[in-house]
Design goal:
This protein has 278 residues and is an alpha/beta fold. The protein has one domain: 3-Layer(aba) Sandwich (Rossmann fold). The chain has ten helices and ten strands. An eight-stranded mixed β-sheet has the order 1-2-4-3-5-6-9-10, with helices on both faces. A two-stranded antiparallel ribbon has the order 7-8.
Amino acid sequence: MKKVKKSLKCTYLDRSELLGIIPSQRIKIKTLGGLQLETFLYGEKEGRDAIIMCHGFSGSSSNGILSQIAQALSKKYVVCRFDFRGQGASEGDFYDSSITLELEDLSFVVDYVKKKYSPKNLILLGHSFGSAIAFLYARGNTIQGMISLSGEGDLEKAIGYEFSVEQMKNFEEKGETTYVNWSKGGKMDRLGKQFLDDMRKYSTLNAAKLAMYPTLFLHGTSDDVIPCNASKEMFALVSGKKELIFIEGGDHTFGFFAGQSKLDEVISHIQNWLGQNF
């Protein structure tokens, strides 16, 4: 990333287990190419509304944030979190990461949840870059709701958040760059230019304009990775029922890694919004 942010420092240690948050089931979902996606399920009960979580780029769903939210929501909902290919405990090479492939991963997870639990309503929840993936998936697929946490916003602007001048130069001259892979202990990993190409190819702004489903945006006012204006811009474009809530003093992970967690506040807003809309 352009800057190393203290709030994002975490390794692929399964923090959910350290916190005593144990999913009801841990499975592997196979992609078209045969890769296994590490998947965690909570609150399993057929016919319940389902929430599928998308983590941020170079992270994992086991960083503790999504697992805490999943546990809290599992009392009333089927909740599924998973690791995108090349990240976390899923198979695949981080070098090959792209928006196109993350959308493919999400589609396999959605298909599994729909077939297994037959939910009446399907809600996507995305954190950071995962929010962009969720919005892009919803362009051509039916969902009933969206929750965006510290969302990436406009991908064209996000290029400046994600990559330094040096990284951009490497993409152009070498066809690849190095990038901090937080899901693998914060090591520098090789990343191919296809990721940048996809950021230029896809439009989250256009996806937001097509959003007719209820949408909740939550963003910390002290986010030093993605400015809260990114959510404000997306919020303005959504056509359906929408709500934007700023978490005062919250950073990119709502204080989770800074020892000043505001996750209880975030969870409360999510639960209230879900209760009002589903």
